[in-house]
Amino acid sequence: MPTILHIKEIYYPILAAFGFPANLVTIVILSRGNCGLSKCISVYKVTMATADLLVIIFNVTLYNIFSYHFPYPFLSYTAVCKFILCMNPATLDLSVWFTVSFTFDRFVSICCQKFKTKYCTVRTAAAVITTISVLICLENIPFWFAYEPDRIINSVHWGCHNILGFFSSPAGAAYSWFESVFVAWLPFALILLFNCLTVRCILEASRARRGLRGRSSENQSDPEMKNRRKSIILLFTVSGSLILLWLTAIVSFLTTRLTHTVHYQADYADPAYIATETGFMLMYLSSCTNMCIYAATQTKFREELKQMMKSPWTVMLIFVKKMKKYTKASCLN
Q1: pLDDT per position as a tens digit, 261-303
Q2: Strand, coil or helix: what is 152?
Q3: Which of 133, 188, 229, 284 has the highest Cβ tally under 10 A?
């Protein structure tokens, strides 16, 4: 067996074994609201963790593990197969664009003080997340029509494969390029833009505050600047790790499209194939890194994580009770 296939057989089960509980724990901890974060930030972070959890479920577990190594009859139904293949790009889109929305929210919070009170609210965050989710679902509808059954046995459709000529047609090729721009180039350009503007704003504010505080307070700590420093560290680590881990996949996609080496004809030693699969593995790894980032950069999150590791069932029980109260309050409203 080729080396790259050996690596995939070992890598994806390990990734699923770590990524599923990591994102689930992150959702529980952030939903409790004991990390010292605003409700708006918590909403974005919980949503990002949920999208990452969906990537682990659909892209890693169902597609790269169960569909290949445990071909259960249920997963072989054409409808189920097509649903998994449609959810794969949709979950990646959600993960990326929720990070963009979080980055923009931090940009507004730090740089746009007048607009901050109107935009940085739970209601706005919910509206942004809902809009992104609906648009991404609509944008991925063509994938449902890109596959057809492998075979039909007793009027039951089994398996699925690409419809011949769908992605090679002008419309299919245009949609493929649009998908790459929509999921990678555009969001990453926006993340870099918002981060650069945020850094510039923070540097200007730092100079202004140092001038106002004067020389007499040079040796005193500035709580406001400490909070901004923590925010920028969190923002940069989350968005920076996403860009770095997606970079290989983005470059690989661009080079394979420009050199017309998309199809490898079962040549698993082809450098283009190895680069593409390596890009996918790193891309899926980005769905497991946020919990580690939160634990490394946020003291209260780290404390909550330690508490959950000591008494997981107690924390889960408190989380369930809190969600029940929240559901009842939502129904009353």
Answers
A1: 555 555 778 788 888 899 999 999 999 999 899 988 888 898 8
A2: strand
A3: 284
Amino acid at 234: L
- Report the C-alpha gap between 96 and 191 in whole angstroms: 10
User: CA separation (Å) from 17 to 57, 161, 308?
Assistant: 11, 28, 18
Distance between CA 48 and CA 26 in Å, rounded?
Answer: 10
Residues making up the chain, counted from first to last: 333
Q: What is the pTM of this model?
A: 0.87
Q: Report pLDDT digits (tens) over 146-190.
A: 888 888 888 888 888 888 777 778 888 788 888 888 887 899 999
CB–CB of 60/15 below 8 Å? yes
Helix (H) or strand (E) holding 46: helix 39-54
Distance CA 302, CA 289 (A): 14
- Measured in whole angstroms, the distance separating CA 110 from the mean position of its chain's CA atoms is 23
Residues 42 and 33 sit within 8 Å (Cβ to Cβ)? yes
Going 188 to 193 to 194 to 199, the CA torsion angle's sign is positive
Long-range contacts of 6-15 (CB under 8 A, 24+ apart): 7/281, 8/64, 8/277, 8/281, 9/69, 11/281, 12/60, 12/64, 12/65, 12/281, 12/284, 13/65, 15/56, 15/60, 15/281, 15/284, 15/285, 15/288
Q: What is the DSSP letter of 157?
A: E
| Segment (H or E) for 161 | strand 161-162
Round to whole Å and give the CA distance between 95 and 50: 8
Question: Is 222 exposed, middle or buried (CB count within 10 Å of its CB: 0-12, 13-18, 19+)?
Answer: middle
Segment 64-90, tens digit of pLDDT? 998 777 766 788 888 998 999 999 999
With tokens 């494969």, the residue in question is 161
